[in-house]
Specification:
The complex is a heterodimer of chains A (about 190) and B (about 160). Chain A is built from seven helices and six strands, in the order H-E-E-E-H-E-H-H-E-H-H-E-H. With about 190 residues, chain A is an alpha/beta fold. In chain A, a hairpin with a 4-residue loop joins strand 2 and strand 3. In chain A, helix 4 packs across helix 6 and helix 5 packs across helix 6. Helices cover about 70% and strands about 0% of the residues of chain B. Chain B has about 160 residues and is mainly alpha-helical. The chains are: A alpha/beta (about 190), B mainly alpha (about 160). At the A-B interface, helix 1, helix 2 and strand 4 of A face helix 1 and helix 2 of B.
């Protein structure tokens, strides 16, 4: 075994030992998808972050270190279920995610909005205004927009299903091209 | 702000492995020391001072883990001698890595530690002295004696070949 292989094997051993010791606070991996490379991160409680390439994966990891814990390792096996469900979603055979989520990166009204987003069914859309009204806060349209823009779990928590009242796309953390791609995928399936 | 620990493993993993290899002599002991070092480091990473010298901190942990492993080995029956794997970037032209590691293994503890922590980990003598005890001058002498002994052994091996 050369040094690179030895280090890869030792890394795997470290991941398992950290998990057993309960100190693998955040595990992450990256997966390829039709909307680019996605960073997936999970705490022991569940999937905590999905990040698009344009968000800067290194910067996202820095934020996770500051907000959750710097005990972060690349440990793909903790993300196996998430990676598989995303794969199924992108190939059109999965219409809802069945994953434990850790929503601790959002709080208050933002988290409330994001929880509602998970109720919008596959292939359906609502407007920012609709969402504000449903949450009993019809004047909070902008706050709904902010909650969507800061969704830590894009794709899995479908903020892409929220549009402007006139049907325009509005904004998207992954870029409008990605938002359009997801909506097209869901319409086709 | 503390970096994600994965970056520490990427940046220093190879260095710590070579240090463990030099200090412990066998790859399997080095692997165990590496694993225990990084597990302990991961545990205390959030509490490490922001301005701490990460290399010195890791080598300090590795030093303690290596001592634990050496003590454990002494308590157990001697295992079958292991054939060394390949290694290192400190290879001297003409000498196989295998010969070099074998030569490192024959050095007295103090010399082996001084060579590993100063030449492989790149720590200044002052920091090496903090880790192994003794004065920086004593560490400097031990490192110099160690290198001299290694040169002599390697030259002899060259001559034989």
């Amino acid at each position: 075994m050369d040094e690179t292989q030895t280090l890869a094997a030792l890394h795997g051993r470290l991941e398992k030992a950290a998990e057993d010791a309960g100190i693998l606070d955040v595990a992450y991996t990256t997966v390829d998808s039709p909307v680019g490379s996605l960073l997936l991160a999970a705490t022991e409680r569940g999937l905590v972050r999905v990040a698009y390439d344009r968000e800067g994966h290194d910067r996202v990891l820095d934020t996770l270190a500051a907000r959750l814990s710097p005990r972060i390792l690349r440990a793909p096996w903790r993300l196996d279920a998430a990676a598989r469900e995303l794969d199924e979603y992108f190939s059109g055979v999965r219409t809802r995610f069945d994953l434990p989520l850790d929503r601790s990166l959002a709080s208050g009204f933002r988290q409330q909005v994001q929880r509602h987003l998970s109720q919008i069914a596959y292939g359906h859309t609502e407007s920012y205004k609709d969402v504000a009204a449903i949450l009993g806060n019809p004047r909070a349209v902008r706050a709904v927009g902010t909650a969507c823009a800061t969704n830590p779990l894009p794709v899995v928590v479908p903020c892409h299903r929220v549009l402007r009242t006139d049907g325009a796309l509005g904004g998207y953390v992954g870029g409008l091209e990605a938002k359009a791609a997801l909506l097209t995928l869901e319409k086709a399936a | 702000m503390k970096q994600p620990f994965e970056r520490i493993v990427s940046a220093y993993g190879a260095m710590v492995l070579r240090v463990c290899r030099a200090v412990l002599g066998t790859q399997s002991d080095a692997d165990d020391a590496w694993s225990e070092t990084f597990l302990a480091a991961l545990r205390s990473w959030p509490d490490l001072a922001a301005d701490a010298n990460v290399e010195a901190w890791l080598v300090t942990i590795a030093h303690r883990k290596a001592i634990d492993i050496t003590r454990g080995n002494r308590r157990r029956p001697t295992p079958v001698e292991e054939v060394p794997d390949r290694v290192s970037t400190i290879g001297t032209p003409g000498a196989g890595d295998r010969d070099l590691w074998a030569a490192v293994k024959t050095l007295p503890d103090k010399q082996r530690q001084a060579v590993a922590y100063h030449y492989l980990a790149g720590l200044p003598y002052r920091q090496v002295a903090d880790i192994v005890g003794g004065s920086p001058d004593a560490v400097r002498r031990a490192a110099a004696d160690g290198i001299k002994a290694l040169r002599a052994t390697v030259r002899k091996v060259d001559g034989d070949g």
